[in-house]
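User: Predict structure, ligand iron/sulfur cluster.
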Amino acid sequence: MSVTLLNNASVQPLLQVRDLKMHFPVKEGIFMRTGKFNKAVDGVSFDILPGETLGLVGESGCGKSTLGRCIARLYQPTAGEILFNGTDLARLGRKAMMPFRRDIQMIFQDPMESLNSRHTVGEILEEPFIVHAMGDKVWRRQRVTELLELVGLPARSATRYPFEFSGGQRQRIGIARAIALNPKLIICDEPVSALDVSIQSQILNLLIDLQKEFNLSYLFIAHDLAVVKHISDRIAIMYLGRIVESGEGESIYRTARHPYTQSLISAIPVPDPHHVSQRQILVGDVPSPINPPSGCAFHTRCPKVMDVCRSVAPVLTSDRQPVSCHLHTS
Ligand code: SF4
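Assistant: Predicted complex:
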C-alpha cells in the first residue's frame, strides 16, 4: 500500500519520497537461508518543501530511523523513489551520489557516536571540507570558527575534544558539522531525545534559527509528539513501516483521527495541576515487522478495533488529513 503525504502548496518540493520500501532479509536455519524479510519501511510516500519541517513520529521500532537513513542513502532502499530536486537518489551509485551528500546531512541522537573522539572539534569540523576538496587550510580554519559561532560555541572549542563537552554542547558540534557544507536538507534523527528538557528547547531553537537563516528543510524524527510540536510545519505518524496519519501540525494536535495518533497525543504532559489526565495507554509493544498482524497492523493494540480490522487493511484517505483507519472510510 502506498501512503502519500501531499503538500498543498504550489512550490516545487525539495524532496519527494514515493512508495519507499526497505526490506531487510532475515537469515534463518543452519544454512542461514533467507526465508523472511523485516519490512522496516513498507511503502512510504511524502514531500518536503524548501524551508519546511516535516515531523516524523512513532514508537521505537516503527521504521522512522531506517526511513531517514534510506533518504540519506546510508541504506540502499529495496524499492521506491527518493526524488531530490527531481533526481532519483535511490538509483544512484556511490560516485554519482557524492555531490548529493553535500546537500543532505544527518544529525544523530548521540553525537558521541558520530564524532571521532580522537580528533579535536576543529579537526572534526574541518573534515567535510577536506573530503570535498574545498579551500586551503586558512580558509577552512576560518570556516570552523564561523561554524562554532553559528551554533553558539566559543572559537577556542576548536582545540578541545568531544568528551570535554556536555551533551547539549556536543549536539551543537554535531549541528555545526551538519551545516558545514551548506546542505538543503537535514535529517534530524531524535536529536534532542538524550538531552535534559531545558537543553532540548535550546537545541530546538537553534535548529529553528538556522532554518530561517539558511532556508533549510528538516525531516525531524522523534518518538514523542510533544518534541515535534514546537518545530514542525507538518507531521506524519508512522506505525510498523507505514504512515498512518499526516497533516498540518496544528490540525494533527486538535483533530487527530487515527486511534494511534490519539494515544500519542494523550501521552503529552499538560503543565496544569488541575488537568485531569485522559491518557490512553497502549497495551503491548509494536509487533514484529517480520510477521506483521493481518488487516490493520494496529489492530492488536487498538482500543477501537472492529471485526473488519482483523482481516482488511484500511486504505489511506485522500483528503487534507490523510488517515488509514476503517473508522474514517466511507
Ligand atoms: Fe483501530 Fe480498526 Fe482503525 Fe486499525 S482500522 S486503527 S484497528 S479502528
